[in-house]
Amino acid sequence: MAKESLLQYVCSECGHVESKWNGRCPECGAWNSFVEEKAVPKAKGSSAVSPVMDDSVRKLSDIPIEKSMRISSGMEELDRVLGGGVMRPSSVLVGGEPGIGKSTIMIQMLSHLSSSADVLYVSGEESPSQVRMRADRLGLDSSHISVFCDTRLEALSEAIERVQPGYIVIDSLQTLYSASLPSLAGSPNQVRACCMELSLLSKKIGAAVFFVGHVTKDGNIAGPKIVEHMVDTVLYFEGAESGLRLLRASKNRFGSVDEIGLFIMDSDGLHGVKDPASAFISRRTGNEIPSGIAFTPVIEGSRAFIVEIQALVVPAKGSLQRIYSDRIDSARVSRVAAILERHAGLMLSDQDIYVNVGGGMKLSEVSIELALAIALYSSRMDIPVPMQLAAFGELSLAGEVRPVSFAARRMKALSDMGFTRALTTDSKDGFHVVYDDVHDIKQAIVSAFKARKY
Predict the structure, then answer these.
(1) Which residue, 158, 252, 314, 355, could crosslink 325 as a Cys pair with Cβ 3.0–4.6 Å?
(2) pLDDT above 90: percentage of residues in the chain
(3) pTM beyond 0.90
């Protein structure tokens, strides 16, 4: 009689194991986080042993500071997000949608780094010939890139100890498994254990390891959340509607998390965008823009971008107002619409509102609220915004326009892009841009359109 297979339930957030499904994890408190997995019998004589880095107990003041090494990845945009280059030793987790370019950017990086150190590409999803074909297609020098195509953690650890590479790419983390754990590859316990072991091993030999991670339908990296706490840096690849790839850091022990990298994909791989300031605005001919369009400068790390906010206001088809906005939080759109209705006398409660951002960039800054209000007013009244006008500022519930940070950098970006007028408040330096010092939403609308009377 065949032995009945055992099932267990593992929390996808913390890795806690239960014999039956629970709605809430008793360990971390996460709701609906338990996933079913088959319990694989533990191999005899195997044990999970992590590499020991330092088992001595010493005074913190007596520990010498090791000089870390940072080197360029060969891509300026990737260096910017990493904080200036690849740090050794370190561990980096890279997540993104399928086909976004995770494997491409990793092998491009290894090709550049292979000129100064030994590199190792660990492929758990492709054969060695497929990896070679990708490198040849991208026109990369693969003569110094070592490839390892085994997903067993024990075999991989032995190979790393033997080769002692300076840079390692694991593609992907969810394909690794350890025979010492009674679960299948990709399960929360396997992902957590493999990530921990390889992170410690990379620090032991002084290497930088990059883990390529799958993402769930919600856009989060698959596996327990604790994996993001284990690594030094967490990067997310996003795709914009304009075809651009956006690289962001949600965690970085060696740099800022505010920086953003912009890439474009072509037949030669991923390349940095040459003119990022204008990457999200449309090039239009003529002396007028359509109604419902407003421009605003946003700050991402050390950069300023000019983005285009698009609004469409149409009569509601039902008794309730509906708001459609996925690039700007719909709650913010509702709040700005309510401010316009209360303090500018613009009836919007019987209208459906559609909001979009040109290029598909997601905006969360409070500075976009004034431009959003101008776009909504423009669409509702069918009055185009002047061609070279931009706006930035936070709106209070009392209808006031509040100042925002980095006003000088925003004004410089507008000046560089050829804008001649700006609606804002308390700006210190115009950089050849004439700005209207507005203090409430009513004054801002009058200044923008020069037509509405109250």
Answers:
(1) 355
(2) 48
(3) no
